[in-house]
Write a structure and sequence with these properties.
22% of the residues lie in helices and 39% in strands. It is of the alpha+beta class and 179 residues long. It has a single domain, classed as Nuclear Transport Factor 2, Chain: A (Roll), CATH 3.10.450. The strands form 2 sheets. A 7-stranded mixed beta sheet has the order 1-6-7-8-9-4-5, with helices on both faces. Strands 2-3 form a two-stranded antiparallel sheet. 25% of the residues are buried. InterPro entries: NTF2-like_dom_sf, SnoaL-like.
Length: 179
């Protein structure tokens, strides 16, 4: 299936540009979680119906996790600094591309969060999550406390490639929030 869905043309363009994804697997469906249209998703207290979201299904375990659930779990683990749980969302061979560096492997990612991250406590607020079982894009804003105690507010965009319910590749982009 080629890029042909008008609703997700920009997300497909970004994924193609960042990851070289030219075609989507057979049966892949796009879905958009818009907090304005789905207040339960914005609050993190409810789930959309099967008709509203594409489920990520693991062929090995038959467990289901939506793209929305995966991304929200990742941000919860990071925001709550539950570093021992990073393996729930990142694959052992995961690669994170950041503006200043590339992190390769779960151990390296955990070390980054424990010792190098320029932010202290964070609070991610996703505005939209677009994706399917293989590729997800998310953007929003977050606040953080810097290492020197200063308040930092920025916008972010993340893209994810997913395999067996875990992130295998993440690209993170940060943008200063307009004042």
């Amino acid at each position: 299936m080629a890029f042909d869905t008008a609703m997700s043309r920009s997300a497909r363009h970004l994924l193609h540009r960042w990851y070289g994804v030219a075609e989507w697997p057979d049966g892949a469906a796009d879905r958009v979680i818009d907090q304005a249209e789905h207040p339960a998703a914005a609050e993190g207290t409810g789930h959309q119906t099967a008709a509203e979201e594409e489920e990520i299904v693991s062929p090995d375990t038959n467990m289901e996790r939506s793209a929305d659930d995966l991304v929200r779990l990742l941000y919860a683990i990071v925001d709550e600094e539950r570093w021992t749980e990073l393996g729930e969302v990142f694959a052992e061979d995961c690669v994170i591309d950041r503006a200043e560096q590339q992190l390769v492997g779960l151990d390296r990612i955990r070390d980054y969060y424990l010792h190098e991250r320029r932010f202290g406590q964070t609070s991610h607020r996703p505005e939209r999550i677009v994706g399917d079982r293989d590729a997800i894009a998310c953007w929003g804003s977050f606040s953080a406390v810097g290492r020197a105690g200063e308040l930092i507010e920025e916008r972010f965009a993340d893209t994810f490639l997913v395999r067996d319910l875990k992130v295998v590749r993440r690209a993170t982009y940060l943008f200063p929030k307009p004042r």
